[in-house]
Amino acid sequence: MAANEDIVIEQGATFEKSFTIASTNLSSYLARAQGRTSHASGTIAITFTAAITYLAPDSTITLSLTAAQTAALTAPSCGVFDVEAYVGATVIREVEGSYTITPEVTR
């Protein structure tokens, strides 16, 4: 079962968030993550860069967005996201939750 975590993304700022997957070796997996305005939406609102690292006994999945990427996001807005680890046809949803994008003032 996926962990439930909510995240806040600041428009115009570099974003990075790491999730620890305890006692799990995901070193042979890749990661992917997307955000949408709702579960049913066919439109991707956010495509995160996702990377997995393994330091026994835990794996860490890190999501990131550049400042230019967050500046291009609509704010204020909110939606849902999830993070998947995958290898071949095997997919594990590791994290899910909601996201909030706060608007940038200084540009």
How would you explain this protein's 3D organization?
- The protein has 107 residues and is mainly beta.
- It has one domain: Immunoglobulins (Immunoglobulin-like).
- Helix content is 5%, strand content 58%.
- The protein has one helix and eight strands; from the N terminus they run ββββββαββ.
- The protein has one helix at residues 67-71; strands spanning 3-4, 7-10, 15-21, 30-36, 46-55, 58-65, 77-87, 90-102.
- Strands 1, 2, 3, 4, 5, 6, 7 and 8 form an eight-stranded mixed beta sheet that branches.
- It is globular, with a radius of gyration of 14 Å.
- The mean pLDDT is 97.
Strand content: over 45%
Run of helices and strands: EEEEEEHEE
CATH architecture: Sandwich
Helix and strand content put the structural class at mainly beta
Report the major sheet.
Answer: 8 strands, mixed
- What is the CATH C level class, in words? Mainly Beta
